[in-house]
Amino acid sequence: MIGQFLPRHRHEEFLKFHRTIDAEVPTGLAVHLTSDNYSTHEHPAAHKWLRRHQRSHLHFTPTSSSWLNPVERWFRELTDKARRRGSFNSVPALIGAIQTYVEAHHHEPEPFVWTATTESILAEVARARERLQQGVSHS
Hints:
By secondary structure, the protein is mainly alpha-helical. It has two domains: 60 residues, no CATH class; 71 residues, no CATH class. It is built from five helices and two strands. It has a two-stranded parallel sheet with strand order 1-2. The chain is globular and about 50 Å long.
C-alpha cells in the first residue's frame, strides 16, 4: 500500500504516482494496478512512460465492479477508523490522520481474500442483465 495525496487528478499526478510505485517496488517484480477508467492514462506522456516501463500493467474495471470490493472495503475501514473518529479543522490534519492509519495498517496488514469464482461472478452478471431487461420491457 502506498499512500499518496495529490491535489489534482491529471496526467502529471498519474506519472508522479507511477514513479513512486516504480521506485518502491523491487526491480524484477511486475506491477499490476487496478484503476478506474479516468482518462489520465490517455495522455501522450503517460503512454510514453508506460511503454518504457513494461513491468507496469494497468487493469481497468467498470464502476461497481465486484473486483473493486476489496479496495472499497479498505477505504471503508479507513473512513470508519481514521476519518469518522476525528474532527479535522484543515486538510493537512485530515491527511495526517489518514497517513497515521496507513502506517499502522502497514505494521499489521490483513490480506483481502478473494473467494468468488469466475462462474459465480458471471452468473450474477447474467441475473443483473436479466433484471435490467425485464425492467426496460415493463416501462
